[in-house]
Task: structure prediction
Amino acid sequence: MTFCCEKFAEQAGELHPPMGGGFSYPLAMRPNAQFAEQGDGTWAINGCCGGGCYVVTEMRFCPYCGTKL
Result:
C-alpha cells in the first residue's frame, strides 16, 4: 500500500492482530495502528483502546499533509 506521507504511513501501516483489541485483551492483541481503512476506501480513527470503536469515520483527508485519501 502506498501512503501520502511518512507520518500517515507510520500511524496506519502497522499490522493489525487477528482479533480485536479492548481493555480486556492483552497488549499483544490490540491493534497498534491509529488509522484503519474501511471497506469503502475511507479511513477511520481508532478509539482509545484500539478495539474497533471509531472516533471518526469516513476520514477523507490526511491529518498530517492534507492529501485526499
Remarks:
- The two ends are 12 Å apart (CA to CA).
- The chain has a mean pLDDT of 76.
- The chain has one domain: 6-59.
- The longest strand covers residues 54-59.
